[in-house]
Amino acid sequence: MTDSNSDEFDPTAPDQREIGREMVDDSTGLGSVMAHVYRGEIDRVGTWRERLDETTTWAVTLMAAILTWAFSSPDNPHYILLVGILIVTIFLGIEARRYRDYDVFRSRARVIQENLFANALDPSQGVESHDWRAELSRDYRRPTLKVSVYEALANRLRRVYLALLSVLLVAWVFRITAFAPRQDWLTTAEIARIPGIAVVAVVGVFYVVLLGVTFWPHERHAKGEFREGDPDDWKENR
Length: 238
What we know:
By secondary structure, this protein is mainly α. It has helices at residues 14-17, 19-25, 29-70, 79-121, 132-141, 149-176, 185-188, 196-215, 231-236.
């Protein structure tokens, strides 16, 4: 095995790529260190996963409170639902930022799983990335975010927030139409001196932008954890 102290050390060399095999055959110092590193990365993944869940919980709780108050009396203003849309959107931004941080540690854990543990279990398949050690080293030296704000927003919208914002939209439309049948719905949609048509236009444009962010095709940069497959393939081999 190449001496790690040598000036000619190359983490992409064949013998260095096969560190997974050596972890099974021998108790190496690097293998012990990597076990602790992996444990630390998984712990941080779990911590940031909890932070994501906490943001979603707060968004759902506030949304439920706003919906309850908005329909508790016909005299309550409809624009409280628009305030709810704004608040949930703020939570979306917070969660997208947290998702970018979460993906940093998830990506590192996946690199170790794919190239170290998977290769240790079955060296015949080789490694996913020949320069994975150099790649991981660079990220520890200079940590970088792996996904853009756009991708993070799209991910959280698809997973949670598009459904929450859709519920608020349906509730608002119901509030200005069926819940106030004696008035024209455009009149009901007015907010102070802002005409109803302007309010409806702004809300419509906002949701068109949301749909565009959610479904517009874009290249995925997040390191995936799960892939679709046939569960019977796994069960048949157990």
